[in-house]
Amino acid sequence: MRRGRAEYPGRAPADAAQGRERREKVTGPALPDEIVATDLDSAVRAELLSLTKPVADRVARHLVATGRLIDEDPALALEHAVAARRLAARIAAVREAVGLAAYRAGEWQTALTELRTYHRMTGRQPHLAVLADCERALGRPERAIDLYRGADSASLDKAAAIELLIVAAGARADLGQRDAAVAMLQVRELTATSAEPWVARLRYAYADALLATGRQEEAREWFARAADADELGDTDAAERLLELDGVVLEEDEFDDEPDPDEAGGEATPNGDVSSGPAGERTALDGDQPDGEAPGRPAEPDADRSDGEPDAEVPAGADDESDRDLRSDVVDRAGDPADTAMTAPDEGPAAAEPTETATRSSGPKADATPAQTVGGAEDRNPGGQGSEDVGSPDQGDS
What is the DSSP letter of 318? Predict the structure, then answer.
């Protein structure tokens, strides 16, 4: 008797459905026509030359989609990155894209796995701050501090070194060592005149650390400095400054059925009303009641006036090992001659995580477990407890 599909006709539909499902898993999310492979960075496209042209083009388009969606829809960006990994798992740029998309989507363990793999494949460690932040989000601040201590300062640029410092200070705060967190952030880069985004982020983290210990006046000064340096709006320093000044920003509140004439809008044929320049609409049923839709109150200017004297950086406590490491990681990553730090005053506080757990960035959420691929930075240090810290030398960096 012949054995074959003809003897089991009832299984054919199930097999066909499974085949379609497998094809969908391989192809991944749909790729719009406007996403083309040539939009991918030329250096990354060069890494895809080992693939056949059809596969390379599809991988490139998924990577382009990942980059475009990572800010507005991280979950969908991660789907595109995973689709690219199914086709080209041995390409370092693909593993990097999966790791960064997973980080933005809050998949901390996946981000750790992929970025460690990327570091092993390339021999470079540009994403140590992201790895440390993921460890914090997974409830392992000791490992975040261990990553900071074991960082190869020669391989880090200034921005990466500052981000790693911010995360390590946040890990100290997680352990309840708020004084040490403030002291770690007392580096001369606080008063840098550079327009780089890391300047605003460092000042913001330092202000937040000061505020966590109740030093409100000093925190206000550094939130103001962060707002001055934040030309790209990466932080909410201006809003935090307004909060400290007692200014409450309220959301727009509209009546359920505003009068189109008084609301400054025009009624559409279906009864909707466009309200103000924002173009928001409120449906009207029947007659239009009297009433005026309130507008948004004017926001006070958060910028500091010119000529206001610079405040000195307050001094805090720090242990000798962290002070030496901070100087090595930050100073060797850039030219310290570009910046100058005034002598600090007394005081301590805590910092929040980097890229997505503070108000500006840094993760702080539950993770989806996944198998971790070990890397050179995967350590299991002993628990970090509260530590007595002494007064640091002035000019510590």
Answer: B
**pTM for the full predicted model:** 0.62
99's tokens: 């790791």
Q: How far apart are CA 327 and CA 309, in angstroms?
A: 27
Residue 285 CA to residue 273 CA, distance in Å, equals 11
Q: Which residue matches tokens 């995360």? A: 167
8: CB partners within 8 A, 6+ apart: none
CB 226 within 8 A of CB 243: no
248 CB neighbour count, 10 Å cutoff = 7
Tell me how far apart the alpha carbons of residues 338 and 351 are, in angstroms, rounded to a whole number. 24
- Between CA 165 and CA 149 the distance in angstroms is 10
Closest CA to 325 of 172, 150, 142, 203: 150
Residue 26: other Cβ atoms inside 10 A: 10
Looking up tokens 């996403």 gives: 35
CA 156/CA 176 separation, integer angstroms:
28
46: three-class secondary structure by DSSP = helix
Pairwise CA distance, residues 96 & 113, whole Å: 10
Which amino acid is located at 313 in the chain?
V
Kindly report, residue by residue over 99-125, the tens digit of the pLDDT.
Answer: 999 999 999 999 999 999 999 999 999
Give yes or no for a contact between 358 and 208, defined as CB atoms under 8 angstroms apart: yes
CA angle 250, 256, 259 (to 5 degrees): 100
pLDDT tens for each residue of 197-253: 999 999 999 999 999 999 999 999 999 999 999 999 999 999 999 999 988 766 654
Distance, CA of 271 to CA of 268 (rounded, Å): 5
Whole-angstrom distance, CA of residue 305 vs CA of residue 244:
17
Residue position matching structure tokens 């009303």: 273
**How many of the other CB atoms lie within 10 Å of CB of 250?**
8
> Which pair of structure tokens corresponds to residue 31?
């790729």
Burial class (CB in 10 A: 0-12, 13-18, 19+), 271: middle
